[in-house]
C-alpha cells in the first residue's frame, strides 16, 4: 500500500484511486470473514459450502496428479513389455542357433506355444491401449509407445 506521504506526491486521481481500492479490499476481506462465520454457524462442517468448495478443488488437483501417475505407470508397463519381448526374442534366436550348432533337436512345440501365448497377451494389451485412443485417429500405424507418451492418451 502507498502511505499518506507518498499519496501526496502522486497525482490526485491516482491518490483517490488508491484510497478507493484500499477501502474495497478491506470491505471484501470483511465480507469474506463474515461469510465464513455465518457458514460455520449455519452449517455443520461436512456441509459447509466454503469447505465443500475447498474439498472439490483439492480433489481436482489430486485427480490431475493421479492421471499423471497413471500415465507414467502405463509408460513404465509398456517399456517393461517392450524390453521383455526383445529379451525373449533374442534369447529364443540364440537358443535356436545353439541347438542347431550342437545337433540337438529344435525347440519343442510346447515352448513355441508359450512364446505364441506371450505374443497373444502382448497383442491383447496393445489392442486395449489402441481401443482407449480417441476414435477417428489412425492408431493402427502408430507405435504403441507414441500413444502412451502422447499428452492425453486416455479420455
Describe this structure in words.
With 155 residues, the chain is an all-alpha fold. The protein has a domain at 71-149. It has 5 helices and no strands. The chain has helices at 4-9, 12-42, 49-102, 109-132, 144-149. Residues 129-155 are annotated as: Disordered. It comes from Rhynchospora breviuscula.
Any descriptors?
single chain; mainly alpha; 78% helix
Spatial separation of the terminal alpha carbons: 47 Å
> What is the structural class?
mainly alpha
As residue ranges, the low-confidence spans are none
Our count of helices gives 5
Give the % helix. over 70%
The value of Rg in angstroms is: 32 Å
Beta-strand level of the residues, as a percent range?
A: under 5%
Report the oligomer.
single chain
Amino acid at each position: 500500500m502507498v502511505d499518506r506521504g507518498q499519496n501526496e506526491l502522486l497525482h490526485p486521481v491516482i491518490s483517490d484511486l488508491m484510497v478507493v481500492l484500499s477501502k474495497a479490499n478491506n470491505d471484501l476481506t470483511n465480507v469474506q470473514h463474515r461469510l465464513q462465520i455465518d457458514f460455520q454457524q449455519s452449517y455443520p462442517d461436512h456441509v459447509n459450502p466454503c469447505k465443500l468448495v475447498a474439498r472439490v478443488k483439492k480433489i481436482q488437483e489430486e485427480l490431475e496428479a493421479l492421471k499423471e501417475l497413471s500415465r507414467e505407470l502405463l509408460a513404465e508397463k509398456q517399456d517393461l513389455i517392450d524390453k521383455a519381448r526383445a529379451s525373449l526374442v533374442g534369447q529364443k534366436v540364440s537358443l535356436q542357433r545353439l541347438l542347431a550348432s550342437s545337433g540337438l533337436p529344435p525347440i519343442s512345440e510346447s515352448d513355441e506355444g508359450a512364446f505364441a501365448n506371450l505374443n497373444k497377451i502382448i497383442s491383447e494389451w496393445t489392442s486395449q491401449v489402441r481401443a482407449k485412443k480417441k476414435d477417428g485417429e489412425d492408431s493402427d500405424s502408430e507405435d504403441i509407445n507414441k500413444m502412451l507418451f502422447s499428452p492425453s492418451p486416455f479420455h
